[in-house]
Amino acid sequence: MRATGDGIEILTVGRIGVDLYAEEPGATFIEARRFQKSVGGSPTNVAVAAARLGRRAAVLTKVGDDALGAYVRHALSAEFGVDTRFVGTHPTLRTPVVLAALDPPADPQIVFYREPAAPDSTILPGDVDPGLAGSVPILWVSGGALAAEPSRGTTRGLLELRGRRRHTILDLDYRPSFWASERAATREIGGSVDLATIAVGNREECRVAVGEADADMAASALLARGIESAIVKLGSEGVLVATPGERRVLAPLPVEVVCGLGAGDAFGGALCHALLSGLGAFSAVELANAAGALVASRLLCADAMPTEPELRALLERARG
Fold first, then answer.
1. Distances, alpha carbon 219 to alpha carbons 149, 238, 242, 279, 292, in Å
2. What fold is seen in the domain 10-313?
3. Hey, where are the domains in the chain?
4. Whole-prediction pTM value?
5. What is the pLDDT of residues 91-123, one digit of tens each?
6. Are the CB atoms for 295 and 306 separated by under 8 Å?
7. Which residues on adjacent β-strands are paired with residue 200?
8. How confident is residue 87, by pLDDT bands cut at 50, 70 and 90?
C-alpha cells in the first residue's frame, strides 16, 4: 500500500489493537465477569482523540487479516473519523488484544496479547508516502514503534526524513514487555530524541530515554538534546512543561478516576489539536490536561474521547 495523504494534519505511527475493559471498578481478573471492547493502541487513540476535536488525523499501522482487524478499521473510519488509508493488513499475524482489569482504577492491570508478533511491528517504508511524513503538520511517533523490526527502521527513517521539522512529537511510551531489554529501549527511544522537537513521557519513561527520573533533570536533559518543549507527566502532581526559556508545573484537574487507561492518549490528541490551533506549549498542555482528566473519569478510551466544548467546560469549572 502506498498513498499520499492530502489534507492530513496529524499522522501517528505505532500500535493498534482491540482493548477489552473489565466493567467492574476495582475487580481483579479473577473477579471480573464482563468486559467492553474498544479500539486500542496508544498512537491510534491519539489519532482518535484529535479527530474527535475536529482534526484530520491518520494512523500508520497494521492489523491482522481477521475479524478484529475489520472491526478496528471500521470503527476508526465510520465511528471516529480517522483516515485509515495507512492501516495495512498482515496476511498471517493476528490483530492484538489487550485486557484491562480496573484494580486499581487509576493504574489498571494490563495483559498484552501480541504473540508471536503484532502486525503493527511489521510496518514497511512503502506503507506510506515519505513525503507525507516529511510535510504533515504534526508527526506523532510512539516509542513502541521502535521496539521491533521492520517497524523500527521504518519509523526511524520517517523521523530522519522529516529533518526535525516543527511539531515532530516523540511519545517516550515505554512498555517493558515490548522490548528485549531496557538497554535496547534506551538505545532506540533515547536515540530518537535527537530527531524530535517535542518529547512527552512520564518520569519512568524519561529515565529510560535520557537516564533521568527526576522531572526537572529529565526536562533539562531533553532540552539539552535539542527538544523545544519537554513535557513530563507527574501523575497526581500534574505536568511539568519546560521550554528553553521557561518551565512550569501545571496542576492536575480533579476528577473521580474510573479508568486511568487512555488518559495519556486523550492528552496527546488534545495537545496536537492545541498546537495546530496556534497555542503555545503551556496553553496547549493546559487543554491536554483537561482531555486526560475527562477520559480518566470514563470507562473506555477511544469511545470516551472528549469534544472541545467538554474540554472548555471543564477548564471553566476548574477556574471557578
1. 29, 14, 6, 20, 21
2. UDP-N-acetylmuramoyl-L-alanine:D-glutamate ligase (3.40.1190)
3. 10-313
4. 0.95
5. 999 999 999 998 888 888 999 999 999 999 999
6. yes
7. 171, 231
8. very high
